Amino acid sequence: MRLATWNVNSIRARVGRIVAFAEREHIDVLAMQEIKCKPEQFPYAEFEAAGYHVEAHGLNQWNGVAIASREPIEDVEYSFPGMPGFLKDHDGPDLPLEARAMGATVSGVRIWSLYVPNGRSLQDPHYQYKLHWLRALEEHTRATLAAHPDLPLALVGDFNIAPTDADNGDPAVIEGVTTHVSPAEREAFGAIEAAGVTDVVRPLVPTGYTYWDYKQLRFPRNQGLRIDFILGSRALADAVTGAAIHRDERKGDAPSDHVPVVVDLDLEPADEDDVPMIFG
């Protein structure tokens, strides 16, 4: 299986290049974030013509997640247990859920397409919402793997966190001043990993960013962030045979500000000597 994640920053604006990429790179499963449309507005026909099934979850022109797969998509969920909601200037346990998560099973792999809240600023209520959201994801991940320790689980998408200094090349993103690099966000990312998943791309692609702001010539100056990840359980990590960050998708006409991240999975049993040591 070739699994990819991509914050597409509006599926309707970029459907042609997204489907072309999926076909050219022989992507089997593509998790998308920030589709910016309701399900009835999603351009299903273009994906179906290329041989993909699609499940989409969106509530308005913001956020939104989707999964396209060459194999059937099963057991779809549109939130994970404990996922908090958000409504500006409101507080409490029953706030509306945003379209930020979709879980589905494809060929035995449990995949979550995730668009983690941005946080906006360290003083904004959205920042606390982001931390609560991440804590709920950690708890769900821990509970899932406690119940199913051999499950190939992939948490993929835009995490809006640069977990190490090596993941931050944007001079405007400063620890203690801006979101994405604050100690609390980095600790939350680490807690999710401690719940039983690991970054399966970093050992194979140790450098490279996945996002560049449209402003201030960030892309030509390579002042980016690595904030898009594929985190896998041990069963998934043991199946990884290759990985790539497709930087060139930031080029050309009207690109997304993010690029695809891809892993290759060999889900058949393999000799131990042939398995990359992702977990170490």
Features:
280 residues, alpha+beta, Deoxyribonuclease I, Chain A, 6-stranded mixed β-sheet, 5 helices
Could you please describe the fold and organization of this structure?
This protein has 280 residues and is α+β, with helices and mostly antiparallel strands. The longest helix has 23 residues, at 125-147. The strands form two sheets. It has a six-stranded mixed β-sheet with strand order 3-4-2-1-12-11. It has a six-stranded mixed β-sheet with strand order 5-6-7-8-10-9. The chain is built from five helices and twelve strands. The two termini are 23 Å apart. The chain has a single domain, classed as Deoxyribonuclease I, Chain A (4-Layer Sandwich). It has helices at residues 11-24, 44-49, 125-147, 183-194, 234-237; strands spanning 2-7, 29-33, 53-57, 65-69, 74-77, 101-106, 109-115, 153-158, 197-199, 228-233, 240-245, 261-265.
What is the first-to-last residue Cα distance? 23 Å
CATH architecture: 4-Layer Sandwich
The fraction of residues in strands falls at: 15-25%
CATH class: Alpha Beta
* Largest sheet composition: 6 strands, mixed
Structural class by helix and strand composition: alpha+beta
State the shape. Answer: globular
Low-pLDDT residue spans:
none
Tell me the CATH topology.
Answer: Deoxyribonuclease I, Chain A
Total count of domains: 1
Summarize the structure.
The chain is of the alpha+beta class and 280 residues long. The chain has one domain (2-274): 4-Layer Sandwich (Deoxyribonuclease I, Chain A), CATH 3.60.10. Helix content is 21%, strand content 23%.
